[in-house]
Amino acid sequence: MNIVKKLFSYTPKPSSEPFVLSSQPKPEYDLRNELRIEKAYVSSDIDENRAYIRKRFRIPINNDVIMRDIALKNGKSAFILFYDGMVIGEFINDNIIQSLLELTSSDTLTDSELYKRLTANSQAAPQQDMDIIADEVNFGSCALFVDGTDTAFLFDVRGWEHRGIDKPENEQSIYGPQEAFSEMLRTNTALLRKSIKTEGLIARSCILGSKSKTKGILLYIDDIANEKLIHEAMRRLNGIKADYIMSIEQVQNLIVDKPMLFTPQLLATERPDRAARALTEGRCVFILNGSPRALIMPSGFFELTHSASDEYLAVPYVTMSRVIRLIGMVFSLLLPAIYLAMTLYHQEIIPTYLLYSISASRENVPFPSIVEMLLMDISFELIREAGLRMPSPIGSTLGIVGGLILGQAAVSAKIVSPIMIIVIAITGIGSFETADYTLGWAHRLLRLAFILVAAVYGFFGIAACIVLYSLYLGSLTTFGIPYVSPVFAFRSKSMVSPLVAIPTTRRERRPGYLRTKRPDAAPPVSRRWQIKNKGE
Q: Same domain for 121 and 89?
């Protein structure tokens, strides 16, 4: 009935039109518009400065911007500008405002005299460029404008809430420091300077994002790192043009040579000790404000396979650990494909009794081996992702109970064979052996490719894919060095070795492929107590 009334009755037009978000016509780009940008500077007229600040910071629409007027005793006026919640209020009241109110009516201060008076109680930096003043205020500083002076003063009063220094979550180690990077930029640089106590540790800043204006710092040791590496790193960082940059992962994707490559090309670590060790090797470390990880560049494939605990164990233990991790990575990458190739095309290499067992277990399974494997692999990935998304007390229970119930129910229902459950379980355990989380993602994607190729071509397809992928990795470079460096370092005296750990007493040279200014990291004999003096 309502439909008939709507069709044949008159409905008056509403007084207000509904809102429709339409696209605006794109203005014609003209390079001359960029050349007409005028820079603004601080004026000696306080009213002009106040009007400019109100317009630029959208006051009073932007309600968390505080612009407080101060009447001085000498008849002049001033105002301070800061963001509420990003500064230490007690510092502003006790040091800045109190210093201004202590001025007497007879004071006729010039810029230099006012600067001396303000720095008596707090650190002030004079500035005349309005763009720099706005950037510093957006980063948590406080700006002071005084009538009659064409210079503003910036105070570092940052005091926003932040997370403290916690233990590493993804790179845990029984031995070594138990500190991790936080989201505070200066806290992270202080952690590195606590480990490397030298004035040669240089921190060069850059601003990323035209809207977010996130501050980043590139650190390196000046008398060790290669100048070309430093220049290339700064060139790539300064060449990032985007509106919003807030994570170290965004920066990584914007500065690597091959952003679409499965295997990660740079190492992101949350451990200050690992970043400090990379600095002493001659690498650069990039830290971004708001990100609890540091980016080490350059980083090769073998650095991604090493664990943070390798530096704190004896050489035999480290070598054994690396071999176990390598076996686990090979299992996670190739075990499902090898099982498919053997059961589909190469049954002659399987022992007879094992072949009988596999055939008997798959007798009542209705799906082909490839469908069975993809079904179980996807189910395992679903359980893993669900465990990551759930709260930690529930996530571990979901992974254990869900995996056991799902596997047992699937075998009982004759959907999959028990041998397939074993293969997927070993593959999953091997994937957890991967030291770097992003490298584990790469192996999970490559495993699917190997499974599909093995289902069609058998061992020939697996061998061809391994050769092609190895050649492709061998052709890659990251910041000018080969991606798989060093390939052979078993008898090297370098700090880095791909598989066999190098004793601390033999780490006499830095990695040769980094081309550092000082190749020697230690004297030929570091244990000088073993050298006996003549006459002893």
A: yes
DSSP string, 463-506: HHHHHHHHHHHHH-EETTEETT--S--TT--BS--SSSPPPGGG
Q: Are residues 231 and 114 in the same domain?
A: no
Could you tell me which of 239, 184, 249, 157 has the C-alpha nearest to residue 206?
A: 239
Edge to edge, what strands does the sheet with 124-127 contain?
Answer: 65-71, 77-83, 142-146, 152-155, 124-127
**Do both 468 and 389 map to the same domain?**
yes
377 belongs to a structural domain:
yes
CB 197 within 8 A of CB 336: no
* Residue 162, domain member (yes or no): no
The beta strand positions in 381-459, using DSSP E, are: none
Q: Are 151 and 126 in contact (CB under 8 A)?
A: yes
Residue 34 confidence (pLDDT): 44
Cβ atoms within 10 A of the Cβ of 126, count? 16
Q: What is the residue range of 445's domain?
A: 313-482
**Is 15 part of any domain?**
no
Q: Are 143 and 153 in contact (CB under 8 A)?
A: yes
Do 440 and 305 meet the contact criterion of CB atoms below 8 Å apart?
no
Global pTM reads: 0.77
Q: What are the tens digits of pLDDT across the range 115-147? A: 666 665 556 788 899 988 988 888 888 999 988
The answer as to whether 307 is a domain residue is no
How far apart are the C-alpha atoms of 518 and 221, rounded to whole Å? 11
Q: What is the mean pLDDT of residues 327-354?
A: 88
Number of domains in the chain: 3
pLDDT confidence of residue 174: 76
β-sheet bridge partners, residue 67:
81
For 200-232, what is the HEC assignment? CEEEEEEEECCCCCEEEEEEEECCCCCHHHHHH
The better pLDDT of the pair 119, 322 is held by 322
Residues 294, 394 within the same domain: no
